[in-house]
Design a protein that fits this description.
The chain is an alpha+beta fold. The protein has helices at residues 2-17, 76-81, 158-161, 177-181, and strands at residues 58-63, 66-73, 93-103, 106-107, 116-121, 127-133, 141-142, 148-155, 170-172, 175-176. It is 17% helix and 30% strand.
Protein backbone atom coordinates (compact mmCIF):
# COMPACT_ATOMS: atom_id res chain seq x y z
CA UNK A 1 0.00 0.00 0.00
CA UNK A 2 2.83 2.37 0.92
CA UNK A 3 4.56 1.64 -2.39
CA UNK A 4 1.34 2.42 -4.25
CA UNK A 5 0.95 5.73 -2.41
CA UNK A 6 4.58 6.63 -3.16
CA UNK A 7 4.07 5.89 -6.86
CA UNK A 8 0.84 7.90 -6.96
CA UNK A 9 2.55 10.80 -5.15
CA UNK A 10 5.54 10.71 -7.51
CA UNK A 11 3.26 10.62 -10.53
CA UNK A 12 1.31 13.63 -9.25
CA UNK A 13 4.47 15.60 -8.55
CA UNK A 14 5.85 14.71 -11.94
CA UNK A 15 2.67 15.75 -13.67
CA UNK A 16 2.57 19.13 -12.00
CA UNK A 17 6.22 19.84 -12.47
CA UNK A 18 6.26 18.35 -15.85
CA UNK A 19 6.86 19.94 -19.04
CA UNK A 20 8.83 18.56 -21.73
CA UNK A 21 9.19 15.33 -19.94
CA UNK A 22 6.99 15.52 -17.22
CA UNK A 23 4.26 15.26 -16.21
CA UNK A 24 7.57 16.56 -15.81
CA UNK A 25 9.80 17.61 -13.16
CA UNK A 26 9.23 16.99 -9.76
CA UNK A 27 8.83 18.32 -11.94
CA UNK A 28 9.00 16.17 -14.88
CA UNK A 29 8.85 17.51 -18.31
CA UNK A 30 8.12 16.40 -21.80
CA UNK A 31 11.05 16.36 -24.06
CA UNK A 32 11.56 16.92 -27.72
CA UNK A 33 12.50 14.72 -30.54
CA UNK A 34 14.84 15.44 -33.29
CA UNK A 35 13.41 14.07 -36.46
CA UNK A 36 11.18 11.03 -36.47
CA UNK A 37 7.62 10.28 -37.21
CA UNK A 38 5.29 11.91 -34.71
CA UNK A 39 4.54 9.76 -31.71
CA UNK A 40 1.01 8.77 -30.98
CA UNK A 41 -0.45 9.31 -27.55
CA UNK A 42 -0.51 6.10 -25.59
CA UNK A 43 -3.46 5.83 -23.22
CA UNK A 44 -3.45 9.46 -22.22
CA UNK A 45 -4.53 10.31 -18.69
CA UNK A 46 -7.15 13.05 -18.31
CA UNK A 47 -5.45 16.42 -18.80
CA UNK A 48 -2.34 14.81 -20.30
CA UNK A 49 -1.08 16.43 -23.52
CA UNK A 50 -2.01 14.60 -26.72
CA UNK A 51 -0.36 16.88 -29.28
CA UNK A 52 2.61 19.19 -29.66
CA UNK A 53 2.14 22.72 -28.42
CA UNK A 54 2.79 25.68 -30.72
CA UNK A 55 6.18 27.36 -30.49
CA UNK A 56 6.32 29.32 -27.22
CA UNK A 57 7.64 32.84 -26.63
CA UNK A 58 11.42 32.88 -26.81
CA UNK A 59 14.30 34.50 -24.97
CA UNK A 60 18.01 34.47 -25.81
CA UNK A 61 20.14 32.74 -23.18
CA UNK A 62 23.92 32.70 -22.95
CA UNK A 63 26.02 29.96 -21.44
CA UNK A 64 29.52 31.37 -21.70
CA UNK A 65 29.97 32.29 -25.37
CA UNK A 66 27.23 29.89 -26.52
CA UNK A 67 23.83 31.38 -27.37
CA UNK A 68 20.44 29.64 -27.43
CA UNK A 69 17.03 30.79 -28.67
CA UNK A 70 15.05 29.39 -25.79
CA UNK A 71 11.31 28.77 -25.61
CA UNK A 72 9.77 29.69 -22.26
CA UNK A 73 7.71 26.99 -20.54
CA UNK A 74 6.10 29.09 -17.82
CA UNK A 75 2.59 27.75 -17.22
CA UNK A 76 1.68 24.35 -15.84
CA UNK A 77 0.33 23.19 -19.22
CA UNK A 78 3.38 24.50 -21.11
CA UNK A 79 5.61 22.61 -18.68
CA UNK A 80 3.52 19.44 -18.83
CA UNK A 81 3.66 19.46 -22.62
CA UNK A 82 7.24 20.65 -23.11
CA UNK A 83 8.73 19.03 -26.19
CA UNK A 84 6.19 16.20 -26.37
CA UNK A 85 5.19 15.18 -29.91
CA UNK A 86 7.60 17.61 -31.58
CA UNK A 87 9.62 16.08 -34.37
CA UNK A 88 12.70 18.31 -34.41
CA UNK A 89 14.78 20.81 -32.50
CA UNK A 90 17.42 23.04 -34.04
CA UNK A 91 20.96 23.09 -32.65
CA UNK A 92 20.46 26.72 -31.66
CA UNK A 93 17.15 26.10 -29.84
CA UNK A 94 16.27 25.15 -26.29
CA UNK A 95 13.36 25.17 -23.87
CA UNK A 96 13.60 26.46 -20.31
CA UNK A 97 11.17 25.42 -17.59
CA UNK A 98 10.77 28.05 -14.89
CA UNK A 99 9.49 26.86 -11.51
CA UNK A 100 8.15 29.17 -8.82
CA UNK A 101 10.57 27.80 -6.23
CA UNK A 102 13.49 25.38 -5.98
CA UNK A 103 12.60 21.70 -5.78
CA UNK A 104 13.93 18.26 -6.71
CA UNK A 105 13.24 18.18 -10.44
CA UNK A 106 12.66 14.94 -12.34
CA UNK A 107 12.16 14.83 -16.11
CA UNK A 108 11.17 12.03 -18.44
CA UNK A 109 10.62 11.65 -22.17
CA UNK A 110 7.08 10.33 -22.49
CA UNK A 111 5.79 11.09 -26.00
CA UNK A 112 9.05 12.83 -26.82
CA UNK A 113 10.72 11.84 -30.05
CA UNK A 114 13.89 13.97 -30.06
CA UNK A 115 16.85 12.97 -27.86
CA UNK A 116 17.54 15.78 -25.38
CA UNK A 117 19.97 16.92 -22.74
CA UNK A 118 18.57 18.55 -19.60
CA UNK A 119 20.49 20.93 -17.35
CA UNK A 120 19.18 21.27 -13.81
CA UNK A 121 19.85 24.85 -12.70
CA UNK A 122 19.70 26.49 -9.26
CA UNK A 123 18.02 29.84 -8.41
CA UNK A 124 21.28 31.73 -9.12
CA UNK A 125 21.42 30.32 -12.66
CA UNK A 126 24.26 27.87 -11.97
CA UNK A 127 24.10 24.51 -13.76
CA UNK A 128 24.11 21.80 -11.10
CA UNK A 129 23.65 18.70 -13.27
CA UNK A 130 23.41 17.76 -16.95
CA UNK A 131 21.58 14.59 -18.02
CA UNK A 132 21.04 12.89 -21.40
CA UNK A 133 17.37 11.99 -22.01
CA UNK A 134 16.35 9.23 -24.40
CA UNK A 135 13.25 9.36 -26.62
CA UNK A 136 10.12 7.76 -25.14
CA UNK A 137 11.89 6.84 -21.87
CA UNK A 138 9.27 7.12 -19.12
CA UNK A 139 11.75 6.63 -16.29
CA UNK A 140 12.12 9.97 -14.49
CA UNK A 141 15.64 11.37 -14.24
CA UNK A 142 15.61 12.96 -10.79
CA UNK A 143 18.00 15.66 -9.67
CA UNK A 144 20.41 14.83 -6.86
CA UNK A 145 19.38 18.06 -5.08
CA UNK A 146 16.22 19.91 -4.14
CA UNK A 147 17.68 23.23 -5.34
CA UNK A 148 16.51 23.12 -8.98
CA UNK A 149 14.47 26.14 -10.08
CA UNK A 150 15.07 25.96 -13.85
CA UNK A 151 15.51 23.10 -16.29
CA UNK A 152 17.02 23.81 -19.71
CA UNK A 153 16.46 21.27 -22.47
CA UNK A 154 18.63 21.26 -25.59
CA UNK A 155 19.35 18.83 -28.42
CA UNK A 156 21.20 15.89 -26.89
CA UNK A 157 24.95 16.52 -26.60
CA UNK A 158 24.62 20.33 -26.97
CA UNK A 159 26.38 21.01 -23.67
CA UNK A 160 29.36 18.84 -24.65
CA UNK A 161 29.56 20.30 -28.15
CA UNK A 162 29.62 23.83 -26.72
CA UNK A 163 31.96 23.03 -23.80
CA UNK A 164 29.33 23.95 -21.20
CA UNK A 165 29.69 22.03 -17.94
CA UNK A 166 28.32 22.02 -14.43
CA UNK A 167 29.18 25.25 -12.64
CA UNK A 168 28.46 27.37 -15.74
CA UNK A 169 26.12 30.31 -15.21
CA UNK A 170 23.13 30.84 -17.50
CA UNK A 171 22.35 34.47 -18.34
CA UNK A 172 19.50 36.12 -20.22
CA UNK A 173 19.21 39.32 -22.24
CA UNK A 174 18.13 41.25 -19.14
CA UNK A 175 20.70 39.77 -16.72
CA UNK A 176 20.51 36.80 -14.40
CA UNK A 177 17.72 34.24 -14.55
CA UNK A 178 16.44 35.53 -11.21
CA UNK A 179 16.34 39.15 -12.51
CA UNK A 180 14.60 37.96 -15.67
CA UNK A 181 11.93 35.72 -14.16
CA UNK A 182 11.61 37.00 -10.58
CA UNK A 183 12.38 40.75 -10.65
CA UNK A 184 12.22 42.63 -7.34
CA UNK A 185 8.87 44.27 -6.72
Amino acid sequence: MRKLLLRAGLAAVLAVAAGCDDPKKPAIGGATSVGSAPATAAAAEPGEPTAAQPRLHTLKLWLGAAELNTELALTEMQMRTGMMFRTNMLETDGMIFVFPRPHQAAFWMKNTIVPLSAAYINPEGVILEIHPLQPHDTNPVAAATDQVQYVLETPQGWFDRHHVTTGAVVRAESGTLRQTFFPPR
